[in-house]
Write a structure and sequence with these properties.
heterodimer; A: mainly beta; six-stranded mixed beta sheet; five-stranded antiparallel beta sheet; 0% helix; globular; B: mainly beta; seven-stranded mixed beta sheet; 11 strands; 52% strand
Chain lengths: 113, 111
């Protein structure tokens, strides 16, 4: 049973374009929704995160949009660059659950120069 | 001053053997986690620990054992390795504010 569903599995975007990755969750007890970025041979690293009382959060070229009623959230990467090519994971955690973080299946992004 | 380190980086073993993956963090974070990463499944939580001597199961705990006698160490043991446990294993720690800090991973192959 996958509690966090992520799409697409892979994504190819032209340099300067917008990359969009979508996630959906089931458990309404989740109260923290991070996105992690992973480069080959490395561990994932926190990119940006949002709490359910906010509908949007922006940090530089990265934006999370959050729809609590639909139980969906998405990552937008504006002006995508070749250096953004990586695997992106959405995730969800609940503070009442010992901060267990459940991850989506991941999206492999390739930005063409 | 590495923060969180995993060893070994690569490991090849045979089915039925016992294998221990090590994880050490220098931040004194309370929480530590073990994940496995497989294509199509993302990162799946194996076990986690809220403090020394406190551990709990995650999504896929079968075939794994953990211990946490010291805050800084969180070893993961495969008691009798199976081919389905071939994976990349990541250890992570957190000070308790939901943000996870990951190690560089251990690539395990079970032949």
């Amino acid at each position: 049973q996958q509690q966090v569903k992520q799409s697409p599995q892979s994504l190819i975007v032209q340099k300067g374009g917008i990359s969009i990755i979508n996630c959906a969750y089931e458990n309404t007890a989740f109260d923290y929704f991070p996105w992690y970025q992973q480069f080959p041979g490395k561990g994932p690293a926190l990119l940006i995160a949002i709490r359910p009382d906010v509908s949007e959060k922006k940090e530089g070229r990265f934006t999370i949009s959050f729809n609590k009623s639909a139980k969906q959230f998405s990552l937008h990467i504006m002006d995508s660059q070749p250096g953004d090519s990586a695997t992106y994971f959405c995730a969800a955690s609940m503070s009442a659950g010992g901060f267990k973080t459940i991850f989506g299946a991941g999206t492999r992004l390739f930005v063409k120069a | 001053d590495a923060g969180i380190t995993q060893s070994p980086r690569y490991k090849i073993t045979e089915t039925g053997r016992q294998v221990t993956l090590m994880c050490h963090q220098t931040w004194s974070h309370s929480y530590m986690f073990w994940y496995r990463q497989d294509l199509g499944h993302g990162l799946r939580l194996i076990y986690y620990s809220a403090a020394a001597d406190i551990t709990d199961k995650g999504e896929v705990p079968d075939g794994y054992v953990v211990s946490r006698s010291k805050t800084e160490n969180f070893p993961l043991t495969l008691e009798s390795a199976t081919r389905s446990q071939t994976s990349v294993y990541f250890c992570a720690s957190s000070p308790g504010n939901e943000k996870l800090f990951f190690g560089s991973g251990t690539q395990l192959s079970v032949l």
